[in-house]
Amino acid sequence: MIKRSLKQISDMASAINDITPFADVVIEGVTIDSRKIQPGNLFVPFKGEQVDGHKYVEDAIKKGAAASLWQKDVPNPPEGLPIIIVEDCLVALQELARKYRQELSVKVVGITGSNGKTTTKDMTAGLLSTQYKVQKTEGNYNNHLGLPLTVLGLSEDTQIAVLEMGMSGRGEIAFLTKLACPDAVVITNIGESHLLDLGSREGIAEAKLEILQGLREGGLAVLHGDEPLLMERIYEYKGNINIQTFGRTNTNHLYPKDITQIEQGNSFKINASETVFELPVLGTHNILNALAAMLIAHYFSIPYEQMNAGLAQVKLTNMRMELVEGKQGEKIINDAYNASPTSMMAAIELVSNLQGYKRKILVLGDMLELGPEEEQYHLQIGTALNPEKIDYLFTYGELGEHIARGANQALGSHKVFAFKDKLQLIDHLKKYVDKSTLVLVKASRGMRLEEIVQSLQKK
Fold first, then answer.
1. Quick one: which of 448, 450, 426 has its CA closest to 368?
2. CA separation (Å) from 329 to 312, 394, 435, 452, 456?
3. Confidence band (pLDDT; 50, 70, 90) for 411?
4. CA distance 303 to 305
5. Count of beta carbons in the 10 Å neighbourhood of residue 312
6. CATH of the domain at 265
7. How far apart are CA 280 and CA 266, in angstroms?
């Protein structure tokens, strides 16, 4: 994590007050939560709609913070304390991160995409860590606030940082990539997430491609080569970059062969090696995420033949294709972290193809931020269900009712149950599960369907 004198910090953050009396105080790490103060931290308060963090500055220093930022337009900064006054605390935090990044010799991998960016981040970090000291974005620290905090948390001896970059609208990825200055970037795919803000998949593709704006000269861009919206635009890019693609088809630089389902994962080969790779992650779509990670690892001089060691230790962030067991012995795929039409269809395909279960149940909730066509997207999920592969469907939420409406035609209304009350859904679902059952739980994060998984697991 960042370790600098208060004089250095004040210069990096463009302080507008004199901190000479505290110039030699050493800052070690940054936090925005006064409840998580560690000795030596710089506390950064924000003016929120409900709470103003400036109220906790003195308490943070009492708890061990070495200093605090203070926004100029907030009156009455405490006197006699190591306070750095800045025009805007968020901007100061971002500038502090930008300048710290410039001082580090670390290589940076930036990852974005509509689906799979967190999984790809985890896989990339796993592969690279077999040879390098690696840090990665933790949790969902992938936005204009989280990414600066991640950068400021990098150790000076970290060799490669794997940074996830999220967005909700245009310009956000451009800002993040220019702050991080990546040496290599990945765009996992173009889906339907953020259609509400960006209007079309074309708009989403253009927003994701903003990640190239911060890519270092001659750096590597890894793209989903089966996505025409990406490929049409990438070859119009005027910068000096190295382009490599992954995908299902043999037109890509890297593509899979001989895919075989194994317990809790898949084995596969690639066109660039005869090695049989084992990926302990469910879903053939995750093989594509692994290919993107493998291209990055190979760029950093890790031979394909040595990558099994990295794949074996991949541990995905919770609630992403997480296989757990319920109290009746049922197997549950907890994929409740997020959802879009593309990722939901991929998860349903996985469940449809898994063998060894007498009963397969889908528990699907609303997919959010899909724009004016949201009802149609949900309806299409339901109508696409295969009655020979799926036994029952439970839906939750208002938009989930459109999944149910489509599934009434595909499965029959006696196999479809729509709920707006989560507890009622849980009570009814429990009547259908036993040790021969596989349950998929998936929806957008805001639906909190992990509560269903937790209820199934309770003894």
1. 448
2. 26, 19, 4, 15, 10
3. very high
4. 5
5. 14
6. 3.40.1190.10
7. 7
Spatial distance between the Cα atoms of 196 and 398, rounded to a whole number of angstroms: 17
Q: Are residues 164 and 278 in the same domain?
A: yes
Q: What are phi and psi of 268, to 5 degrees?
A: -160, 165
What residues make up the domain containing 223? 104-312
d(CA 243, CA 249): 17
- Order of strands, sheet of 30-31, starting from the edge strand that comes earlier in the sequence: 30-31, 42-43, 67-71, 83-86
The overall pTM is greater than 0.90 = no
Q: Assess whether 306 and 265 both reside in one domain.
A: yes
What would the pLDDT profile of 35-49 be if each residue is shown by its tens digit? 999 999 999 999 887
| Among the listed residues 280, 281, 277, the one whose alpha carbon sits nearest the alpha carbon of residue 259 | 277
Bridge partners of 267, per DSSP, are 260, 278
**Among 129, 117, 107, which Cα is nearest to 302's?**
129
Report how far residue 37's alpha carbon sits from residue 59's, in angstroms, rounded to the nearest whole number.
10
Is residue 78 domain-shared with residue 222, that is, in the same domain? no
CA proximity to 190, closest of 223, 164, 168: 223
**E-strand spans in 159-241?**
160-164, 184-187, 220-224
pLDDT band at 234 (very low <50, low <70, confident <90, very high): confident
Helical ranges in 339-433 per DSSP H: 341-353, 374-383, 400-411, 422-429
Strands of 280-354, DSSP E: 322-325, 331-335
pLDDT tens profile 307-355: 999 998 887 767 678 889 999 999 999 999 888 898 899 899 989 988 8
* DSSP string across 79-120: TTS-EEEES-HHHHHHHHHHHHHHH---EEEEEE-SSSHHHH
Out of 57-71, 334-348, 374-388, pick the least confident.
Answer: 334-348
